[in-house]
Write a structure and sequence with these properties.
This protein is an alpha/beta fold and about 375 residues long. Helices cover about 30% and strands about 25% of the residues. The protein contains twelve helices and 14 strands. The radius of gyration is 22 Å and the shape is globular. Bound molecules: iron/sulfur cluster.
Length: about 375
């Protein structure tokens, strides 16, 4: 892409594809995903377990090492395509649905990792949902922070540690930073551990923070505290935020836009309030509507989904046409021809409003309003 047409967002993902080779064949964990995160803006990635949202984040940061890994797409960060030239290291060919992938893993790693070293922790940082497993049990919080600082800024820069580390911990709402600096991970609560992980992620002063289900393992009260702190820190530091969660109602409180994923693909994206209102009024992608239903109560967005909620993707996914076909109730309102199209042709992103698209044939404008009752007519 020429410099003059470089996208202005901080992060611009285009047609991202991440495939894995398994005994059962290729798994298309991420399959043609595109979205933007503006500078200082916030985007939520929503979907159930296995929809590809975490794989998308790992792919952006080059944290998928093993072949075949990422085999296509563009990841623009601050005007640089992190996947530029990687196409020469791997190739993908599709013949009657059978995939063949060839990859020069050594060359891929050399090229990709050199580029990513400049980005990870500096421009983009990530926090995961299991803070305790990410902290080394025999090192204090201070040692974790000092090592991260040295890795990012060089050993010389750690002279500023005594000043920067307590200030960062104060920003993360620790009342006694000195106590925390000398604490070992087992001496911290779950919420404190997650705030320490956030501190490690912020040590390199990134422009974008990716938070992957950062509070899933915490109790409801602690979740609220961590999320309020996260929102405040993102605002104070003017960070862009990419928040990954299954909880649409939670996103409404914390982000501007939402990208809804199912089976490795984006099925809907738009302003978060508009997407949720459309889902509540059954004027959105049927998957978004189902996702909203599993959040127990919009007035209590910090509660977990009901126990009966399906939390993993049904392996029966339609590969040829719309991937949501076998779970979709909306298709029953379409004609036999319409249903057949759902089964055999993948729906494109169809605009519902400005900046709001839905990948569903039911919303195709037929010239007489959309195919689904109650919308566009
Ligand atoms: S394209 Fe068809 S099967 Fe897919 S979500 Fe829309 S109505 Fe349902």
């Amino acid at each position: 892409m020429p410099a003059s047409s470089t996208p202005s967002p901080l992060l611009s993902v285009r047609d991202l594809r991440t495939y894995y080779h398994t005994d059962a064949g290729f798994v298309r964990a991420v399959d043609g995903v595109s979205f933007d995160v503006p500078r200082g803006g916030s985007v939520g990635i929503a979907g159930e377990s296995g929809c590809g949202k975490t794989q998308t984040a790992l792919s952006i940061l080059g944290l998928i090492d093993d072949a075949p890994g990422i085999v296509g797409g563009q990841v623009w960060v601050d005007g640089e395509n992190l996947l530029d030239g990687l196409g020469a290291c791997c190739s993908i060919q599709e013949n009657n649905g059978a995939l063949t992938v060839a990859k020069d893993v050594g060359r891929w790693r050399k090229l990709h990792h050199r580029r990513l070293t400049r980005v990870r922790g500096r421009k983009i940082s990530i926090v995961f949902q299991e803070p305790r497993s990410s902290l080394i049990p025999y090192r204090t919080v201070g040692e974790h922070l000092r090592e991260t600082m040295a890795a990012l800024d060089g050993k010389e820069a750690t002279r500023a540690f005594e000043e920067r580390a307590p200030a960062l911990l104060e920003k993360l709402r620790f009342a006694h930073p000195d106590r925390v600096l000398h604490s070992y991970p087992h001496e911290l609560s779950g919420g404190e551990s997650q705030r320490v992980m956030l501190g490690l992620a912020l040590m390199g002063r990134p422009q974008l923070l990716i938070a992957d289900e950062p509070t899933t393992l915490l109790d409801a009260v602690t979740q609220r505290g961590v999320l309020e702190m996260l929102a405040a820190v993102v605002h104070e530091m003017n960070l862009a935020l990419m928040l990954i969660t299954h909880n649409l109602a939670l996103l409404r409180l914390l982000v501007d836009r939402v990208v809804v994923m199912f089976a490795g693909q984006v099925v809907e994206q738009g302003p978060v309030a508009e997407v949720i209102d459309a889902a509540a009024g059954e004027r959105s992608h049927p998957y978004t509507q189902d996702l909203l239903r599993v959040v127990a109560d919009l007035d209590h967005p910090f509660t977990l989904p009901r126990a009966s909620t399906p939390t993993t993707i049904n392996p029966k996914v339609n590969r040829q046409g719309c991937r949501y076909f076998y779970r979709c109730r909306l298709k029953d309102r379409l004609s036999e021809d319409g249903k057949s199209r759902c089964l055999h042709e993948a729906p494109p992103a169809i605009p519902l409003e400005a900046n709001h698209t839905v990948a569903c044939w039911a919303y195709e404008d037929t010239g007489h309003g959309s195919r689904v009752m109650g919308h566009g007519s």
